[in-house]
Design a protein that fits this description.
By secondary structure, this protein is mainly alpha-helical. The chain has helices at 20-31, 39-46, 64-71.
Length: 80
């Protein structure tokens, strides 16, 4: 099963600069499966494909929480 976000994914569509060998490795690891471990897919699910930074790679899951905090549906909502 391949990732259902491939059609809008900036990484898969080669909109993010990356060496060919690394690109192929990430495609095999993240894009050729359902993609639950992919940082880009997590941002798309939590916010929108429009909110994916142009320098986010599939293996950068550590950045997702920060992106969703500023770009997600609850961004700007004050919490008690």
């Amino acid at each position: 099963m391949e990732c259902s976000y491939q059609i809008v994914c900036p990484f898969f569509r080669r909109k993010i600069a990356i060496h060919d060998a690394m690109y192929q490795q990430h495609v095999r690891q993240y894009c050729s499966s359902a993609g639950e471990e992919c940082a880009i897919q997590q941002v798309m699910k939590g916010a929108s494909f429009l909110k994916v930074p142009n320098d986010l790679y599939p293996n950068q899951k550590w950045r997702v929480a920060g992106i969703l905090a500023t770009e997600g549906p609850l961004a700007g909502v004050k919490r008690p």
